[in-house]
Amino acid sequence: MTDPARPWSTAYAPGVPLDVPAPAQSLTETLAQTAEQHPSVVALDFMGAVTTYDTLQRRVDRAAGALKELGVEPGDRVALVLPNCATHVVVFYAVLRLGAVVVEHNPTYTADELAHQLKDSGATVVLCWQKVVPEVLGSHGETSVQTVVSIDLAADLPWIKRAALRLPLSASRKARDAMRGPVPAHPAVRRWGTALKHATPLEATHPHPDVEDVALLQYTGGTTGTPKGAVLRHRHLAVNAAQGQAWTGHGAGETVLSVLPFFHAFGLMLCMVYVVRIAATAVVLPRFDVDAVLAAQRRRPATFLPGVPPMFERLADAAERTGADLTSIRSAISGAMSLPVATAEKWERVTGGMLVEGYGMTETAPVALGSPMSTARRPGTLGLPFPSTHVRIADQEDTARDAAEGERGELWVSGPQVFDGYWQRPDETGSVLVEHEGRTWLRTGDVVVVEDGFVRLVDRSKEVIITGGFNVYPSQVEEHLRSMPGIADVAVVGIPGGDLGEKVVAAVVLAEGATRVELSAVRAWSEKRLARYAHPRELIVLPDLPRSQIGKVLRRVVREQVMDRIPHARHTEHGHRAD
What we know:
Helix content is 30%, strand content 25%. The strands form 7 sheets. A 7-stranded mixed beta sheet has the order 7-6-5-3-4-8-9, with helices on both faces. Strands 12-13-14-15-16 form a 5-stranded mixed beta sheet, sandwiched between helices. Strands 17, 18, 19, 20 and 21 form a 5-stranded antiparallel beta sheet that branches. The relative contact order is 0.09. The chain is α/β, with parallel strands linked by helices. It is globular, with a radius of gyration of 24 Å.
């Protein structure tokens, strides 16, 4: 039945409802139900090591018992600083099982980046990969952290691969060094293996969290680039998983290739929450690597792949080059950055399956729109609002007025997956969550047009650079580079970067007396405070930066200058001479 307030619903795939029911269960209750109904289904396949749903539930119970013995209580914030692995899934649900709050962090963050987020969240316990213990300890004195738990990623491997790490071979040493690191002796540090060994599993009668309890603080830069925690309750995540299931029609029997990082909102939802709801098998890889993905595909063929455009491009190229069989992947969803039409066409040609684009934000838990999983899909568009989701296109000059069909406007989203606000930041919450005609709306900051009900992105008012699926906020990079000797001023912009989506470029003005600046030096300076994906990949030197009458740097003009100069500038990895 068509809803006049949601005319786009006529383009929904057959069987997709207008609305989904409000969730009645917390995420841990959903896991318990799935484990009871599908105990022998493989929940996780990590590099060939399999965990059934029954075993996953038992591992979660033991992990929750270990965390309880470490002092974790309901409402405590527990930080996870881990790459993808089976233990990441286990501790995610174990923290929630105690009624505590997960705070996800990128394991490539520097000590300074971690310090800001750990201090802001008030996390008291950190569960982290061995290799990042030094970075966590480097922020320890500035935060509320009392306990740092070191996790050995290799412990999740099949026994034969763990044994191979001990061989006196260069390949074994390289693999061992990639997975393990020395754990500094420190009174705050515990070892996860030891904690588990002595833990008593949490009793089954222990109360589950309520659906209204906070489940997750997910840090995002928003419009300013200053990371702040989006507060997401169990109901936000649970309803978004239900919306996703309604959209795809997936159920038990799916095999999900889980290569998106779990610490990112997109990977967390599709690869840890959604898979449990539908009782799917998650084939988990620690990072995206074409050869590793193809090996996993041969071992356990996937049926569904959530990813970002570079993944689809590289896998399709590999399949065409090597004859690798990807035809089991019947459906795929692309997010985090724009999906080129050519990439979608190539993927569908190679697999015979369907690839659609989705749109969302951390603040929408994260998916809000998607192209339909049907012949009505439109590559190059963000698609249609999810079930139970409303959108409006607000006039950019007068937000009380709706933009006309085909007219540019700011995308506003309203739905049960929209977050409640930013952690301890009421002013910033008030700037993005607004009331209009009886609904609470999230102002996305993205400029779109609507054509026949389909939403198409035309501009980003937030100036965020999306590279490889990660958000880079120019103001953060600029602030750090301005403190570098030899640089008087800087503007950071994004330019087309092939399969990365965009490439980070720094346009710098040299300090008085400086005659050159080297890209290698800029990247070394960036190592101190910025995640690797935020490091500039190109560098140009300008005599000054274009500014508005009020002194604001005109990034659009800088970008035009960069686009004019990059093809002809005398740029190498070793340096860039001043004009």
